[in-house]
Amino acid sequence: xxxxxxxxxxxxxxxxxxxxxxxxxxxxxxxxxxxxxxxxxxxxxxxxxxxxxxxxxxxxxxxxxxxxxxxxxxxxxxxxxxxxxxxxxxxxxxxxxxxxxxxxxxxxxxxxxxxxxxxxxxxxxxxxxxxxxxxxxxxxxxxxxxxxxxxxxxxxxxxxxxxxxxxxxxxxxxxxxxxxxxxxxxxxxxxxxxxxxxxxxxxxxxxxxx
Length: 210
Hints:
- Helix content is 53%, strand content 8%.
- With 210 residues, the chain is α+β, with helices and mostly antiparallel strands.
- It has a 4-stranded mixed beta sheet with strand order 2-1-3-4.
- A hairpin with a 5-residue loop joins strand 1 (159-163) and strand 2.
- The radius of gyration is 17 Å and the shape is globular.
- It starts with a helix and ends in an 11-residue tail after the last strand.
- The model has no long low-confidence stretch (mean pLDDT 92).
């Protein structure tokens, strides 16, 4: 898939996620996401950060956080979630569907991954059953490798991931199967609610019961 196609996929993903957010109830905005410590509203705020923060502000926020990107994104997500209404956060995604923002590391595929995975952080946590179009998932699965797993803190050692809805597998060892988009979440270091994986998934892949 060429750059033009990936740009179109990013725009479509943002518009579709905006529509999903528009349909959420108030209590769903305050429900936990798959991002540890973030509710749905913090994830939505984080997804729109790149559209709202020019480079100068990004640098200032990073200095405020003593150079820690993790501390900066966490603090800004919480502050922005409190400062914007849910309607504003949803509109920011649709209004910036064609925005050229991309993460500091990686190209267009990384920008697509940012939107797809954070969208799944919301929809999977809420049990909405949204299916990301296969072409978008394939782009992101093609980038899964030892380096990306390390970057996202994903431990799949001793496991073979097997997609049940398309021809894709990764790794070797005990088979763990599931929908491709769920395995994508594992590759991005997420834990999943029960019922998404099959085989004998290690506890490292499952959300702790509360």
